[in-house]
Specification:
Blueprint: H1 9-16, H2 20-32, H3 39-44, E1 54-58, H4 66-69, E2 75-80, H5 83-92, E3 97-101, E4 114-120, H6 129-139, E5 140-151, H7 157-170, E6 173-174, H8 187-191, E7 198-208, H9 211-219, E8 226-227, H10 236-254, E9 257-269
């Protein structure tokens, strides 16, 4: 069996070498959420960070929610395996943000040096998740807190069902979703390192008004959940054509294409 795309270095470079595909997905959340919510405010509401504290962000991405995080007056150590993402943080040129390229399984951070540690929507990309969790625990100070956010195990179920149907029709094997490796159902995994971890969830949905809006989101990631994936993306037009017709029919009948999206954050405190 081939390596899951969520941990395939070549695919991760394709996905996250730049922030383009991630921004497409983030923009879809902003434009097409059925009930708009402030995800950054919800997430950081669990952080309980104080001015001057050090927040380590493991798998920082382009720092989309850092304007919200900076309102806490914290210092942000931003680590990511992708140099492209680190460059995005560097370009912000903020004195209280310290970006660096790093591996989540071997954090270049001193033990007990961080007041807060975050790992947002990234643990499914780590081959050895226990090693990454153990590293997060190592760098947390006594009295510290960890936040680990991820998607629901049923995330995008309507879109995934259409994708799997198209894959079968075209003679492809549909790969498991990214969430298969780490989702809100993995509380016991988190508790194996952080015994006090508690899960908080937020349930919502996309309401795509047009086929084009849904396909743009689909083409930014889910479309590549096939085995084998064509290196030149030659599989994509076939999938887009099939899903385009199916989504056209759904919107003609219902007015929108509704796709479930759920997120959760595991929160754990370290004894003082």
């Amino acid at each position: 069996m081939s390596t899951h795309k969520a941990i395939d270095p070549n695919y991760l470079q394709y996905q996250y070498g730049t922030a383009e595909k991630l921004r497409i997905r983030q923009e879809a959340h902003r434009l097409y959420s059925e009930t708009p919510t402030d995800y950054g405010a919800w997430l950081f509401g669990h952080l309980d960070a104080q001015p001057g504290e050090i927040v380590l962000d493991v798998g920082c991405g382009p720092g989309t929610f850092y304007p919200v995080l900076r309102t806490f007056g914290v210092k942000i150590v931003a680590l990511d395996a992708s140099l492209g993402m680190v460059s995005e943080i560097e370009a912000q040129n903020v004195a209280t943000q310290w970006p660096a390229q790093a591996n989540a399984e071997r954090l270049p951070i001193a033990a007990a040096s961080c007041h807060r540690v975050m790992a947002n929507h990234m643990l499914y990309h780590v081959p050895d998740q226990v090693a990454a969790l153990t590293e997060m625990r190592r760098v947390l100070r006594p009295g510290g807190r960890v936040l680990i956010s991820t998607n629901s195990q049923n995330n995008h179920i309507e879109l995934l069902d259409l994708h799997r149907s198209a894959a079968a029709q075209l003679g492809f094997a549909a790969s498991p979703s990214t969430e298969h490796r780490f989702n809100t159902g993995h509380l016991e995994l988190v508790r194996s390192v952080f015994p006090t971890a508690v899960l908080y969830e937020q349930h919502a949905a996309f309401a795509f008004p047009t086929t084009a809006s849904a396909l743009a989101y689909y083409a930014s990631g889910i479309i590549d959940l096939v085995d084998p994936r064509s290196a030149d993306d030659s599989h994509q037009p076939q999938f887009l054509a099939i899903l385009g017709g199916q989504i056209d029919a759904i919107i003609a009948e219902k007015g929108i294409f509704r796709v479930y999206k759920g997120v959760g954050v595991f929160v754990a405190d370290i004894e003082p």
